[in-house]
């Protein structure tokens, strides 16, 4: 069974998993002088035959069906991403209840998400390995995005209070087939994607994914824009045999004119015309790159055990000069007009990151004391280097303009960089997990992980006395426990408990007090159920969870140790429902409904801290819902659509402010026509009714979501 899971996860997809994308393959290969049993993998590459179900998932570090993971799990697969016409990691995550988006502020750029109200900026993974660099991710090489909710440090190490988000890359398959997507749309949008898979031998394949995207952002003055280029090369040798090797290279470069939204006005997003106009300058830029090389080897034994070892080396760079806009003093909603003065200041950042990871996982099934055990033993080593620079000679104020007629003429600036800070971190993690069939229909999951995290922080760019070096080292134990009752193959009920920790240097910086402060601790308790309906074609899950951060850093100081007190506490209670799959052979659906109550239970002893007690911590809307469904009419037409709904929301780190973004419901639509066996044309209309909404919030400003857009895509498979 472990061999079948391993081969299906690595080679062509599960034999029975919905969404499998492989041809029929039968392989008999030598291992340790023996012959492995034949492994038959069935499936189809035709996307039309797939559903929105998760299938086999790797979110728990073991290739298992979603029902065998005793935590809330949402999988946004390639079919859903393609049908919706999503082109970014952020837009794909709009399908997941419990996720909100923070602007790239606080010294950060790139994807900055919150999960159940807790920051997940450092909890993003790529094929099970940490991907915490600061960049905006694309989905051109993404097979699926897995969102595992709840504390998960036993599986992934530091962070993961609210959960983790894992991107799973497209894999080479033992068949030759190609797909090209060409999209044109409103606002000068053009996106071209090529997915080319070559079978090179009986056990070798090469897959090449390439992407180019250009488009203008919001605003009648068409100022903001995106220009992205991507390339992914993946070569696999020994597919399905005793020794399998893979070499992967990923490159992403974007050169944008960023949209930084607009400052709040009287506790609300600034009214029209700020949602229509871009107030930046032609000289604005965001120029970021990611280059990642991954090498991996999988060895399989005849008894079904496997050992996978991966080495990844990633280089990332970022440079940004953006505009932050606000109205002149004295502006109110009552006196706002086209001639109202808009002040503009610079938001400039620069940095480099170099990450090296080594991870090894041993999977085996054994019989101990007459009980079946599925065992995971693993180790991880990480070396992370990050530097941040400033543009010390750059003028911070940009020319003002007016609300109704913004000028965007560029200006010159001294972009000479000066090193501000450097952070070097090393992590060593050792973990073990066992899934035991304790009785008929009952499984027990238990795991432990020991991590040592050490960080060294240099601050040469700061004036004395804030330019001294800082460092800290922590060793922590994380736990995971789950109980599953599965009376049939279609039903799973579970209860789980997990812990997580956040070190002071999680996101690459210390101050003199945090360098003396022990890690924060969190725990997640959850009960839930997962059902397979309509003969297994439709998956339904529900969960009730409580996540607690019970020793949070706050502003109070332990003067004897010059450390922050860990006396803060907050929690989030979540109730979620989700369905994914096919109701009839013609009718696909993906939908979620979530309720969240997040509260600060304890805070600092100051008057400002006490005012936060009992408040929502921000970016934790009480209600979220999403729906996307399609229906096939005859053999050639398919129609569909959906909605995204979020209740009133507010920025994080600004608990007692009055700033609020109103709730919204946004609708999308789809029409698809199958020209012939290899060609389809698809029309996506996003934000069908041109709803003005705000989905990216920071304490200083709010950025609106995309206005209505129309995109036409021609897909050719050959």
CATH-derived architecture:
Beta Barrel
Gap from first CA to last CA? 34 Å
Tell me the CATH superfamily: TonB-dependent receptor, beta-barrel domain
Mean pLDDT: 91
Unreliably modeled segments: 1-44
Report the CATH C-level class.
Mainly Beta
Q: What is the overall shape?
A: globular
Helix content: under 10%
Write up this protein:
The chain is built from five helices and 43 strands. The protein is mainly beta and 718 residues long. The strands form seven sheets. The protein has a 22-stranded antiparallel β-barrel. A seven-stranded mixed beta sheet has the order 10-9-8-41-42-20-21, with no helix packed on it. A hairpin with a 3-residue loop joins β41 (694-697) and β42 (701-704). It is globular and about 75 Å long. The two termini are 34 Å apart.
Q: How would you describe this structure in keywords?
A:
718 residues; mainly beta; Maltoporin, Chain A; seven-stranded mixed sheet; 43 strands; disordered N terminus
Topology:
Blueprint: H1 2-12, E1 25-27, E2 30-31, E3 34-35, E4 39-41, E5 56-57, E6 64-65, E7 73-77, H2 78-84, H3 89-92, E8 99-102, E9 113-115, E10 118-119, E11 124-126, E12 129-130, E13 142-149, H4 153-156, E14 163-169, E15 177-185, E16 189-201, E17 204-216, E18 225-237, E19 243-256, E20 262-265, E21 268-269, E22 285-300, E23 306-327, E24 341-368, E25 371-390, E26 397-402, E27 418-439, E28 442-458, E29 470-488, E30 491-502, E31 520-533, E32 538-552, E33 557-558, E34 563-564, E35 568-584, E36 587-602, H5 607-612, E37 623-633, E38 637-646, E39 664-676, E40 679-686, E41 694-697, E42 701-704, E43 709-717
Parallel strand pairs: 8-41, 11-14
Antiparallel strand pairs: 1-4, 2-3, 5-6, 7-13, 8-9, 9-10, 11-12, 13-14, 15-16, 15-43, 16-17, 17-18, 18-19, 19-22, 20-21, 20-42, 22-23, 23-24, 24-25, 24-26, 25-27, 27-28, 28-29, 29-30, 30-31, 31-32, 32-35, 33-34, 35-36, 36-37, 37-38, 38-39, 39-40, 40-43, 41-42
